[in-house]
Specification:
Length: 468
């Protein structure tokens, strides 16, 4: 069929839809590059037309940025014939998130990916939601059916961006999917989704995605003999976190994975959103806070020693104790010790600079062979997240962690840090020695590295920890 758009252009689409939704049918273009949603008559209103034009124009968060374009199927053009509709790019080679929750065992090993890819996907989802919320936009239906991904190479795209909500400007077209709706929407204390209810949905997706399927609010506790009412209460006014620190009445007996596997910053965010903010929505963490915590988590992920039999294949190294995969229970047995590289920033205290942890949670990188360091590790003024215009951070490694198995020595290769220095002991005390670009420096217990100018760059404090 021929489709005419509001800008006067025309495109050819297949006559039969490849999917149906509550608002209409979805067709693929003959060239395979685009998807078209044609709305049902009851959804083809003047308000909807104005909403689409605003999303395509005034509220466009992509704005020709390749970085943001990768994360969204952003509406491109409004169709006017053979009916009202909207076109987006067509997504290929990605799998919808709900398949991982309900058909996981049917997926091929390549589709299942690995856990380090799940963390990369989680970072991108947090960034996509943060991008919307900083523009004042609410997705309104963040759920497992509106996310497509590849947990092998860490790709993600957020779907259904034609129903976005700007409070007071663009009305909500959908309220959400029950398991991802905030308690105040389920209980009908609030009628309309907002950026605040999106924060709850984001947290639910992240919890299920990183901990393999389990829902943070669905446990053994029963609230009603009626199944429908029981679900409404469990997700609404009586919602209770399955990992609640003091009320264990909703905790399953055998939780395979819990947030205890995460670093403190990420663990605290889950406690904050599902305990403190569950019924006090304004306390919910911002998407950017999830981004920061997930980047930190990525710095802790190491390979599982059970290379052929573990579903995760990677896991976060704990702060203390042996390195053991929390899923398959396999211990890491090589190498015998790894460097924990604690990153501290200069702080002016009492007229002098001191290097301290940034906030309540110490930041560190778990050394692993060929793990890179980036500028956002070495320079406290640089963030790992993209800038407001979608400029990605410099992803070229500035350092590379190496391990010499024959000598049992860890090194940091200096790839591009012109002022890298190492603390050395001399007869008159400790001083700083340069580590030129293109050379390497051993990583030893209690060693220190300065990544740039004193009192500006981060300093690394090295602690060697035995794996068992």
């Amino acid at each position: 069929m021929e489709v005419r758009f509001s800008d006067g252009t025309r495109e050819q689409y297949n006559d039969q839809p490849f999917a149906q939704g509550g608002q209409g049918a979805i067709y693929r273009s003959r060239d395979g590059q685009h998807a078209l949603k044609l709305f049902k008559p009851e959804h083809s209103t003047t308000d909807r037309s104005n909403q689409l034009d605003a999303i395509i124009g005034q509220y466009n968060v992509v704005n020709n940025s390749p970085y943001w374009d990768e994360l969204f199927t952003w509406p491109q053009k409004r169709a006017v014939s053979p009916g009202m509709g909207v076109s987006t790019r067509f997504v290929t080679d990605l799998t919808r998130l709900d398949y991982y929750f309900f058909d996981y065992q049917r997926l091929s090993p390549e589709k299942k990916g690995w856990w380090i890819g799940r963390v990369a996907v989680a970072i991108k989802l947090a960034r996509a939601v943060d991008r919307l919320s900083t523009k004042g936009l609410c997705h309104s239906d963040l759920s497992d059916k509106n996310v497509m991904l590849d947990p092998f190479d860490g790709r993600l795209v957020l779907l259904d961006c034609d129903s976005l909500v700007v409070p007071g400007v663009l009305p909500a077209q959908v309220v959400g999917t029950p398991e991802y709706m905030a308690p105040e929407l389920v209980s009908r204390r609030e009628k309309d989704p907002t950026v605040v209810t999106d924060r709850h949905a984001l947290a639910v997706i992240l919890y299920r995605w990183l901990l393999f399927v389990q829902h943070p609010l669905i446990g053994p506790k029963r609230h009603s003999a009626d199944p429908h009412q029981d679900d409404e209460l469990a997700l609404g006014e009586r919602a209770l976190y399955i990992e609640h620190p003091t009320d264990t009445s909703n905790r399953p007996k055998n939780l395979q994975l819990t947030t205890d596997i995460f670093p403190p910053r990420l663990r605290e965010l889950f406690r904050q959103v599902f305990v403190d903010a569950l019924h006090s929505s304004q306390k919910r963490p911002l998407p950017g806070m999830w981004d920061d915590a997930l980047v930190e988590l990525f710095d802790h992920v190491i390979p599982c020693a059970n290379t052929s039999g573990c579903e995760m294949r990677f896991f976060p190294a704990p702060e203390m104790g042996p390195l053991r995969c929390p899923l398959c229970k396999t211990y890491v047995d090589f190498p015998d010790a790894v460097p924990y590289i604690k990153l501290r920033s200069p702080r002016l205290l009492g007229g002098t600079y001191q290097y301290e942890d940034e906030g309540r949670f110490p930041r560190y990188v778990v050394g692993w062979p060929d793990r890179p360091l980036y500028l956002w590790h070495t320079d406290p003024s640089i963030k790992a997240a993209p800038g407001p215009l979608g400029q990605p951070p410099d992803a070229r490694p500035c350092g590379l962690i190496r391990y010499d198995a024959a000598q049992r020595v860890w090194y940091l290769d200096n790839l591009s840090l012109p002022q890298l220095q190492v603390a050395v002991d001399t007869s008159v005390g400790q001083t700083w020695a340069p580590v030129p670009v293109g050379t390497r420096v051993p990583l030893a217990n209690n060693g220190r590295l300065l990544f740039g100018p004193l009192n500006q760059a981060r300093m690394a404090f090295i602690e060697m920890r035995r794996v068992q």
